[in-house]
Design brief:
It is built from 1 helix and 27 strands. With 380 residues, the protein is an all-beta fold. A 4-stranded antiparallel β-sheet has the order 3-2-1-27, with no helix packed on it. One of its GO terms (biological process) is xyloglucan metabolic process.
């Protein structure tokens, strides 16, 4: 069986292929369009569907963001003729940050809502695709990503005045589907919190209450927390890495449990669930000082198999000193291969690693541009 890894960077999309997750062939940056502009585009989002071989990539170029599609594992690419997303013309302009100290984004008569970046792409059932966007919005496609519909209900949520921009920008950056319920969805917003729908996006309710903060006057707000990533394990339990502790919630409405006690730091970005084993979660801690580098400058994922009660480093094959690259929120994933899923992560130093489930890490690529997202799947 072959494996395909999509590596989104600040200078385009790279791909890597392997038959054994040990020896890799790397290609790129991919020229998604004939003019080659996407070879130097920022790739914040990618999604792949092993069942169909379909790939979607969100690229931000000189001409703005768009979505490229491949139906043959990345051998050829297609871009929509028209921009796939456009805010309704009659939608009132919304500031990107409501905080008192923002000092920017004060609307005037010429301001309009504009799609700035595509942060997340997620396949649903059939031809459904969900997209998380900056400014903070959610979009739905029912034609495999060719055109998208704006989700007005989330935009109009009464808690939107508590949503701030976060360090990277105001965006829906995480979309978690439910395998048994096509109308259920969980999203995370920076800095806005976690929201769920059970009616295909017609209504939304916040589930972030109980996640604490140490950077505001209210340490237990109902919404507005800076959530870095959310993942769902095989039995439906949610895990969240916040701008602070990591959390677990079996029933989010009933509250969240801090599971950071045995992690080397509470801070981090990426967190990934095992596709078939409940309670098996991997996180990539980051130092809590403002330099945002790995703890003790040693790059290492940490793994729990007991739902976060205890964590242990998983670092066989990785550099053991003097490493400064951080794994960003979408910089890690699994390929969901049955029986022995592969694990992958990339860093802001441009290095990418892969491992069999619980095995030794092998380097996929080195010295690429800043890695923003990593996605992987089995491929023929």
């Amino acid at each position: 069986m072959a494996y395909l890894v999509l590596i989104g960077t600040r200078k385009g999309l790279f791909t890597a292929t392997s038959d054994d997750r040990v020896h890799w062939s790397v290609d790129g940056p991919a020229k998604l369009d004939a003019d080659g502009f996407t070879a130097v585009a920022e790739i914040f989002a990618a999604a792949c569907d092993p069942a169909t071989g379909r790939i979607l990539v969100g690229a931000s170029t000189f001409f703005g963001p768009s979505i490229w599609r491949s139906d043959d594992h990345g051998n050829t690419w297609d871009e929509p003729v028209n921009a796939p997303m456009e805010f309704p013309q009659d939608l009132p302009y919304r500031p990107l940050d409501y905080s008192d100290t923002a000092g920017i984004d004060q609307p005037d008569a010429t301001d309009t809502n504009t799609v700035k970046k595509i942060w997340q792409l997620t396949f649903g059932p059939g031809d459904r695709v969900w997209a998380g966007v900056e400014p903070t919005s959610l979009w739905t496609s029912d034609d495999s990503g060719r055109t998208f519909t704006f989700n007005q209900a989330l935009w109009d949520h009464p808690q939107h005045t508590t949503w701030a921009s976060g360090g990277a920008g105001p965006a829906v950056h995480t979309i978690v589907t439910h395998p048994d319920d096509p109308d259920a969805l969980t999203i995370a917003i920076s800095s806005g919190g976690i929201y769920q729908t059970h009616d295909d996006g017609r209504t939304w309710h916040g589930i972030t209450k109980g996640i604490t903060v140490d950077y505001g006057p209210d340490t237990t707000p109902e919404s507005g927390q800076c959530i870095h990533k959310v993942t769902r394990d095989a039995d439906g339990t949610l895990y969240a890495q916040s701008h602070g502790p990591a959390y677990r919630a079996t029933r989010p409405d009933g509250g969240w449990t801090d599971i950071s006690a045995t992690l080397p730091t509470k801070f981090g970005f990426a967190i990934v669930a095992h596709p078939t084993e409940p309670g098996n979660i991997t996180a990539w801690p980051v130092g809590e000082s403002m330099d945002r580098t790995p703890p003790d400058h040693r790059i290492a994922p940490w793994r729990t198999t007991d739902r976060g009660e205890t964590w242990t480093p998983w670092n066989d094959g990785l550099p053991d000193e003097d490493y400064y690259g951080t794994v960003m929120r979408d910089g890690a994933c699994t390929d969901h291969a049955p029986g022995n899923p592969g694990w992958y992560f990339g860093t802001r130093c441009g290095d990418v690693w892969a491992a069999d489930d619980g095995g030794t890490w092998h380097q996929v690529a080195a010295h690429l541009p800043d890695v923003l997202c990593v996605r992987a799947m089995e491929a023929p």
